UniProtKB/TrEMBL annotation, chain A:
Name this polypeptide is given: Outer membrane lipid asymmetry maintenance protein MlaD
Source organism per UniProt: Vreelandella zhuhanensis
Mce/MlaD domain: residues covered: 42-118
InterPro entries, alphabetized: ABC_MlaD, Mce/MlaD, MlaD_Phospholipid_Transporter
Gene name per UniProt: mlaD
A Pfam family that the UniProt record links to this protein: MlaD
GO molecular function annotation: phospholipid binding; phospholipid transporter activity
Automatic annotation (TrEMBL), chain B:
Keywords: ATP-binding, Nucleotide-binding, Transport
Source species, domain of life: Bacteria
Protein name (database record): ATP-binding cassette domain-containing protein
Annotated ranges, domain ABC transporter: 7-243
Tagged with keyword Transferase: no
InterPro entries reported in the protein's UniProt record: AAA+_ATPase, ABC_transporter-like_ATP-bd, ABC_transporter-like_CS, P-loop_NTPase
One Gene Ontology molecular-function label: ATP hydrolysis activity
Automatic annotation (TrEMBL), chain C:
The keyword Zinc belongs to this UniProt entry's keyword annotation: no
Source organism of this protein record: Vreelandella zhuhanensis
Assembly with partners or alone: The complex is composed of two ATP-binding proteins (MlaF), two transmembrane proteins (MlaE), two cytoplasmic solute-binding proteins (MlaB) and six periplasmic solute-binding proteins (MlaD).
Name assigned to this protein: Intermembrane phospholipid transport system permease protein MlaE
Keyword Cell inner membrane: yes
Membrane-spanning segments: 49-73, 149-172, 203-220, 240-262
Primary localization class, coarse: membrane
Membrane topology (UniProt): Multi-pass membrane protein
Molecular function via GO: phospholipid transporter activity
Cellular compartment(s): Cell inner membrane
Amino acid sequence: MKRSKTMELGVGLFMLAGILGLVFLGLRVSGVTLSAPAESFQLEANFANVGGLRPRARVTMAGVTVGRVEAIELDTEWFDARVTLRLDGELEGQLSRDTTAAILTAGLLGEQYVGLSVGGDPEVLEAGDTITDTQSALVLEELIQQFISNMVSG
Amino acid sequence: MTDVPFVEIEDLHFTFGGREVFRGINMAIPYGRITAIMGPSGTGKTTLLKLIGGQLTPDSGRVLIDGQDVHRLSRKALFELRKRMGMLFQSGALFSDLDVFENVAFPLRVHTDLPEPMIRDLVLLKLQSVGLRGARTLTPAELSGGMARRVALARAVALDPELILYDEPFVGQDPISMGVLVELIRRLSQALELTSIVVSHDIKETLSIADYVYLISDGKVVAEGTPKSLDTHADPRVSQFVHGEPDGPVPFHYPAPDFYSDILDDATASGGHP
Amino acid sequence: MTKGIESLARWGRKGCDASESLGRAGIFLAQSAVAVPSREGLRLWLHQVYFVGVLSLAIVLVSGLFIGMVLALQGYTILVDFGAEQALGQMVALSLLRELAPVVAALLFAGRAGSALTAEIGLMKATEQLTSMEMIGVDPLRRIVAPRLWAGFVSLPILTVGFSVVGIWGGYLVGVEWLGVFEGSYWSNMQASVSFLDDVGNGIIKSLVFALVVTWIAVFQGYDLVPTSEGISRATTRTVVYSSLAVLGLDFVLTVVMFGGLS
């Protein structure tokens, strides 16, 4: 009977360790934050080309992460990419209407992310609005093509 | 004691792995007696017990226990019937993860809702009857073969069954534990009015306790009767078995070609097996 | 000509045998998985979690640590060529969570717990314990097999989580403490690229599938073996071989379904 008690204790600790491990994987490894979902809002932005941008990519402003890419889908009206951004709640009603969104690359081969920069328009973007001033991802092949045609014509 | 058959076997046929083990066996096992089923090794005596216990299903024929056809019962009814049976296995078959006490308590715990003190009393009573009350905290690995079989016997009678099946209870025992087991089987069957079926090829011990004996060979019952009548049986095969003679109608040699020509063959055929 | 027909017949028989044994295994799983839960069953299950899970913890954690450390070392030497050593955390975490933790933990589990289950149940069969239990009127599928099956199903995912955690920590030790990758980028790159549902979640789904398959193979091989000492040793080998192959094969299928290639 005593042996069975230590066994049950061992199993209890084993299960507890499993749950703690899962919590570690959630908080420390996947960066799930428990308070975030309450205070955030969405903006949309249409890009001619998203390149290698993926859902869950970072959205930054002046290098500071302020949100994530929620979804990327094809806009069948204009045939460009509609990107849904989820931003921190404190920015709601703070971004001017002519804010620009650009798809940037971290380092030469790094991941792609969205960079926001604020303009000077007194009117502000509300939740659900669309950012109109966007800059697409740089696609290496297009750059090379441009370079070559400039060389030929020049 | 009456002579009403408790177990009836009617025209039983059974094939296992392409071999005909039984070719029409008939038996009537009376209530409250010790019936022995004997025969040379490999005649399927253990298989017969499994057929009686409902673990194997015959090709044809019936096994009736107290009027119920074992192989026509639903799974639930079969398990219900098995509560009225005990079985002692060749190896004892004690559960290796439980100690002696818990092994004997096992059938009580799964089939009854008795309170713990009552279970304790019953288990100690059963262990006392096989003389192993002092060994209740040992694990099966710490028991000798004879002791394991006695614990298994206590477990088999824990639920006070009406029928008990013994599979080779004397095999591989030293003379003392053999004597103890013979005495126990006799005492238990008398005290509890048990119907007992003993499968064995230990002639002397079995004949000393059996009321009636069936002898099977080649898938058939070759002789039956009281121990005394078998002793003076006319059939030479029966008397060879009962008196334990090495050679006779049941030959010592496995069927083979003539020894002399076999040896010469081997020498001429440039070595190796044919 | 006759030789060809003979070998065809032999293959046909082998095919029949294989599908017959697969059928037996399926019925076996169905019969034992539906065991009615009870207080007694819970206690038996708890004991099996101890034997199957807790006792496998040491080997799984030690292996996880070494694999995480090796990953960081190998990953660093490749990533540093591209000047991308900040992505080390991402690489270590994703390879562990998606592939290495579920697969290696399942392989270790098959070797440590699976073979023990086969041998244990096989020995119970050889010593007639299963038959005698049946004669007492207790179904060994419920009493012996079901608690072991469910214990394996619960234990392996926990072991897999442990493997990942220790592996990521091992990667941190080598990458950050030894090779000098900046600690902040180790964690932040990891957090930016690991999705809890897609990566952690899919890894756990994988390990649930592996747990079921490995424990199923182990208990079935034990239950179905020829009850001799040779039969037990053969069945134990079969458990390790079959479950390793099943884990690696299923891993490919699950990876295609979960992480694309076909999307």
